[in-house]
Design goal:
Number of domains: 1
CATH superfamily: Hotdog Thioesterase
Helix content: 10-25%
Strand content: 35-45%
Distance between the termini: 49 Å
Structural class: mainly beta
CATH topology: Thiol Ester Dehydrase, Chain A
Shape: globular
Radius of gyration: 15 Å
Order of helices and strands: EHEEHEEEE
Number of helices: 2
CATH architecture: Roll
Largest sheet: 7 strands, antiparallel
Length: 163
């Protein structure tokens, strides 16, 4: 059984972006095709909540090959976007964070609907545990008010080389 939606996405306002794509990826290490998030509209590090969106467009690199004639957003990219908003919320939104957050695991993952362009996928992230070397968040992906995936993602903090 799917978890209830954590937010009413109809109430979210894309014009109230608090971090733009440029600002997000000036801090996250992912570049080029892996710059998946287009904006953050809510971030509360104290409570452990973040809401971001991803524009699923027909001109994205994966559309011509996954699946020709009926492009479907790959589940692995949904999970990557989930990990990015979790890492951004927990570590990279801080100007003084210089380490790397890598994937530590994915649990309780369910893909419930397909996502085809054009669409806006909202990523709703909630912290479940945060320690100095590990973060855990529960993330929901929502399109048009429908839960399309949910997963618990774990990130591991990998210290930067201090050469």
């Amino acid at each position: 059984m799917a978890a209830p939606l954590r937010v009413d996405v109809a109430q979210l306002d894309r014009s109230r972006v608090i971090y733009t794509k440029k600002q997000i990826y000036s801090r996250l290490p992912q570049k080029h095709e892996f710059e998946l998030l287009d904006g953050v509209v809510h971030l509360d590090q104290e409570v452990g909540e973040a809401i971001a969106f991803m524009d699923v467009r027909e001109d994205l690199w994966w559309c011509k090959a996954h699946v020709p004639g009926q492009p479907l957003l790959p589940g692995v990219l949904m999970l990557e976007a989930a990990a990015q908003i979790a890492a951004f919320m927990e570590r990279y939104a801080n100007d003084d964070f210089h380490d790397f957050v890598g994937y530590g695991g994915v649990d309780n993952c369910k893909f419930r609907q397909t996502v085809q362009p054009p669409a806006t996928m909202w990523m709703v992230c909630r912290r479940t545990d945060a320690r100095s070397r590990r973060i855990m968040c529960s993330v929901q992906g929502i399109v048009d008010g429908t839960l399309v995936f949910e997963a618990d993602v774990t990130g591991l903090v990998i210290p930067a080389s201090r050469d």
